[in-house]
Structures are given as C-alpha cells and as structure tokens.
Design goal:
By secondary structure, the protein is α/β, with parallel strands linked by helices. It has 2 domains: 173 residues, Vaccinia Virus protein VP39 (Rossmann fold, 3-Layer(aba) Sandwich); 47 residues. The chain is built from 6 helices and 7 strands, in the order H-H-E-E-E-E-H-E-H-E-H-H-E. Strand 4, helix 3 and strand 5 form a beta-alpha-beta unit.
Length: 249
C-alpha cells in the first residue's frame, strides 16, 4: 500500500528556517502542537541524564535546561529512510536499549510505540534503564492516519496503555485535545492534500479551491486551538495520549 501523505519529519528549531517551520507547525499541525504543549510542561523540570528514545530530529531537546541535563538521543539504525539522519543520535536495534540498568534519570518517547510490533519488551527496557524515582513520558497517537506504511501497527486505548505499563509504579494518562481538535486536524490534512495533489498538473485545478477555503481554514485553526485551551468537546476521541510514568524509589 502506497503512502500518499507521509508526515514531514520533525526538526529541531536550530536554524532560522527550522525555527520558522517549527512555529508554523505549532499553528497548523495539531498532533505536533499538542505534544509540544505537554513536553513544554514536563521537560524543563528535568535534571540529570535524559534519554530520548526514538529521537528522530530531536524536536523537543531545546525545551530541556541545558545547564541541568545531559541529553542522549537514541534511534534505530535505519531511521534515515524515514527522513531522520541525525548524526548526533546513538543507534540501536529498536528492542535492546544500550544502557546499563538504572543508569538514566528520565526518558522521553514521542510517537514511537505505534511503530513497534510488540511494544511491551521495549517498555520493560525503559523501566530497566530508569533509576529509582525516575520519570518518563510516552506519547502515542489515537486519531491518526495510517503512516510510515507498513511500519504502523497500533492505536492504543488508555486501558491498553495502563495494562502494558504495569511494570511502572505510577502511570497517569492524559488525552491530547478533544474530538473537536481531531475534526479540525483532519480538515487541515484534507486542505494540505489540495496543495499536494498526486499529479503536479492537477495543482492548477486544486489551487483555486484552496485559495477560496483559506479564510475558513484560518477560522477552523483558531477553533482547534480553543478546543485545546478550553477543553471543548469530548476527550473520548482525542488526537492522542500522553502517558506519564515513574519507577518506584
């Protein structure tokens, strides 16, 4: 099955161009912006050694306190075929995390578990490397299109997230957005398809509708952000979930 609309890789805001792209994604990409919202709340509180599992382009590294943390990015050997060729990242086989037991203070794992056929052994590895009292955050999508085909295996309910994370002493799950946020996100993606038709020659035919719909899209984007800020709508069908875990002391 061909993937028509692959998510663009997430880049850290290290250059002027990347900062502009990052800011634009915070406005129009609700999956990304809701993850960023949770990371902005969590990462600045961390100290010590922080491992980013499935780091990709390390898009949230800048939220850490550089004077208080040691950042280590970790990703699979062939991450380059998904658009991530970060030379600063350590490579691993996707199953066995190459760190000693209880050698990591905290970890981050964003939008990775859905791409792991059997995520429980990887969760056990996260628990193993985490020091007593250490914390971690894991994000997964819920309402998201089939992506990075064929390496997209799961959509996790809160019940499943809780059961497969039973090795941690504390687990808290928080939805990202509501069903209204999800609707707006889907409409933004549909609009983006107007600007990226299958055949380049078809762009002229889709450009006029895209221009006409632009003001409506702007209003929808505002509504989407309000749904997140004010928690409008139902959290039973969010964009995804953030799971906060801790290892007992």
């Amino acid at each position: 099955m061909a993937e028509r609309f692959r998510p663009p890789p997430h880049a850290a805001p290290d250059t002027l161009v990347d900062r502009i792209i990052y800011a634009a994604r915070l406005v129009v990409d609700f999956q990304f912006s809701t993850i960023h919202r949770h990371m902005r709340r969590f990462l600045p509180t961390l100290t010590g050694r922080v491992v980013d599992i499935g780091a990709g382009g390390s898009p949230f590294r800048h939220l850490l306190r550089a004077d208080a943390t040691e950042y280590v990015g970790l990703d699979i050997h062939d991450a380059g075929r998904f658009g991530y060729a970060n030379a600063d990242i350590l490579r691993f086989d996707g199953a066995h995390i190459p760190f000693a037991t209880e050698s990591v203070d905290h970890f981050v794992c964003t939008e990775v578990l859905e791409h792991v056929e059997d995520p429980v052994p990887l969760l056990r590895e996260m628990h193993r490397i985490l020091r007593s009292g250490g914390r971690g955050v894991i994000t997964v999508p819920w309402s998201a299109r089939y992506h990075y085909i064929p390496h997209d295996f799961h959509r996790f309910t809160p019940s499943r997230l809780t059961s497969m994370s039973s090795m941690f002493s504390a687990v808290s799950i928080e939805p990202r957005g509501t069903d209204l946020t999800t609707i707006v996100s889907k409409l933004v993606v549909a609009y983006a398809r107007l600007l990226t038709p299958r055949r380049r020659a078809a762009l002229l035919g889709t450009l006029a509708p895209a221009i006409l719909l632009a003001p409506l899209l702007g209003l929808l984007i505002i509504w989407g952000h309000l749904s997140v800020l004010l928690k409008l709508g139902s959290t039973d069908d969010p964009l995804g979930y953030s799971m906060w875990v801790q290892k007992h002391e």
